[in-house]
Fold GMP synthase (glutamine-hydrolyzing).
Amino acid sequence: MQQDMIVILDLGSTENTVLARAVRDLGVYSEIYPHDITPDELRALPNVRGILLNGGPNRVVDGAPVDVDPAVYSLGIPTLSADHPTARGEALPHWPEDPAALTELLRGFVFDTCKAQANWNMENFIADQIELVRKQVGSRKVLLALSGGVDSSVVAALLLRAIGDQLTCVHVNHGLLRKGEPEQVVRVFRDELGANLVYVDASERFLGKLAGVADPEQKRKIIGAEFIRVFEEEARKLEGIDFLAQGTIYPDIVESGTKTAKMVKSHHNVGGLPDDLAFELVEPLRQLFKDEVRACGTALGLPDAMVYRQPFPGPGLGVRCLGAITRERLEAVRESDAILREEFHAAGLDKTVWQYFTVVPDFKSVGVKNNARCFEYPVILRAINTIDAMTADVEQVPWPVLMKITNRILKEVPGVNRVCYDLSPKPPATIEWE
């Protein structure tokens, strides 16, 4: 690894990523680890120049405050610690709330105390990952789950540079993709980019497994596990596949929970993998935030249309068709999402809004159509802006645009009689509804 690193030890904070991003913004690499990492594990990490101990509201576990191994302080690595203010208003040292003051505090610690070098950049990151992938894979073959989204596309570009034709990309249509998406993925990656792409239509298989399943965590785990089964089958056909590549990124890891941080939600590529996984995982982006993934894609030479494509969850529309999935509501999500994307493109909002989509819940409301009472589903619109997907603000969509989208959905999408707009930021809400 070419970059110096600052390690953040999680002592129950809800804002570890704020520190991580602040350090990375200084040009120095940072990673978050659980509080009970051992001194030997810390010694084994490459180029650690400093340690930030980050306490917070979850520091007390089973009635007692958690702490690091005292031997950590004997490693000879500069250490800086604080707690966030508690609800009781205790006079504890805490990080400055003003971003500029926090930056200056970290700048002094990182550069003056730790003597770290500002060598965190995409060129060094890509060089490190190419070296690591080649060392991990050797002359063997890798299978990539290529959804066509930003994360898997950047993984594909990086792996093609690292191992070339040792990579086989598999695009699985699980029946939960957006309108026209499977056709677009095949056209772009196979026809235009010349990738070795295998297309698998497994929509009926996935929908059968998901029938009657309402719990969002169970849905995610079913989708994640079934993905692996499909890849195992494709790997057996291809022969000699030992590795599975995934577009796992840092928010996936952080949100799926650490020992002192509460889990927000499991991600299909983190918490949904089966115990008997037949592959070794290759995840070169697992330490990048979303905006860093885009920067990596640009550095790898991917076109902007691919790098800045709309984010899409691994479970697809399965987590936007709330509760137990039905074909009627799944089509309502797919059609309303297509309308939203068309109108945002027409209004130029696709270039300024980070993520936007529709959700259809599993309940109905009374309405009137054709002078008669109807009992149909609502469609919920969601549009947010974010930098790292850890926090998000709601986009103030112009009223005429909202009304045009609403009128089109009510007119063109069967089984829908109501359109709502989600005004909730993250936190307390998450970006997705499930």
